[in-house]
Structure formats: structure tokens, C-alpha cells
Amino acid sequence: MEKKILLTALCFGLASIVLGAFGAHALKKVMSPDQLGSFEVGVRYMMYHALFLLFVSSTSFLLPEQKNVVYNLALLGTLFFSVSIFLLSTSGISGVNFKFLGPITPIGGLLLIAAWGMTFFYIITKKG
């Protein structure tokens, strides 16, 4: 389980760096400041959750089944939140209308909140 969580964290971190650089250099020329700002939020939250998953993979405060719950919440939350923002903010460039993904973004946010909340709950209720 730890290896899967660690590899996901590393993928999220790598993707954040690549997408951040892409946004700062290539997209800056073709997106409005608001669109670029939204794109950057997606990048930032992906990196935050890469770091969060690094913690989850390495902590001894969580049992394997608890890590699995937190991992799944963080994975789906990050994908729903960040990827929907990436697609929505670049729809003007791609020419594809991704407005139907609008409701996915807050669902992703709720999943991320749940991941952090469950981690807090698991740690605070741990005996010893």
C-alpha cells in the first residue's frame, strides 16, 4: 500500500511541476489572467496533495486500511478537483466545452476535505 501511495504522490508532484511550468510559459500567452489563475489553483492543489500523500505513505499513525481510505479519497478528490479545473480553464484553447464538469470540481473538493478529516479522525482516535 505504501508503495502505491508513494508512487501516486510522486506522479502528482511530477505532474504539478510540468503543468505549472506549462502554465507559466505556454499558457500565459493564450489564456486570460482569470483562466490562468484557475489553472494555477489546480496545479497548487495537486502539489498540496502530492505532499499530503507523501505523509500518508510514510506515517505510522495510520493502519493500512486507514491509509487505503485516505488514499482513495485523496486520489479521487485530486483528480476530480484539479483535472476538472485544468479542463474548464483551458476550454477556450481546446475549443471543447467542458462546462458539464463544473459540478465535479466541488465534489473533488469535498473528497479532499474528507481525506484530511479522516486522517485527523484516525490520528486523534489512535490509542497509544
Helix content range: over 70%
Number of helices: 5
Rg, rounded, reads 16 Å
Number of domains: 1
- Give the overall average pLDDT: 94
State the low-pLDDT regions, or none: none
N-end to C-end Cα span = 23 Å
Q: How would you sum up the major sheet?
A: none
Structural class: mainly alpha
**DSSP strand (E) fraction?**
under 5%
In total, how many beta strands?
0
InterPro entries: DUF423
Family: Belongs to the UPF0382 family.
Keywords: Membrane, Transmembrane, Transmembrane helix
Transmembrane segments: 45-63, 70-88, 100-124
Question: Could you explain the architecture of this structure?
Answer:
- This protein is mostly helical and 128 residues long.
- The chain has one domain.
- The chain contains five helices and no strands.
- It has helices at residues 2-25, 33-58, 64-89, 91-94, 104-124.
- Helix 1 (2-25) runs antiparallel to helix 2 (33-58), helix 2 (33-58) packs antiparallel against helix 3 (64-89) and helix 3 runs antiparallel to helix 5.
- The longest helix has 26 residues, at 33-58.
- The two termini are 23 Å apart.
What descriptive keywords fit this protein?
128 residues; 5 helices; DUF423; transmembrane helix; transmembrane
At a glance:
The chain has 5 helices and no strands. It is an all-alpha fold.
Per-chain topology:
Blueprint: H1 2-25, H2 33-58, H3 64-89, H4 91-94, H5 104-124
InterPro entries: DUF423
Membrane topology: Multi-pass membrane protein
Pfam family, one: DUF423
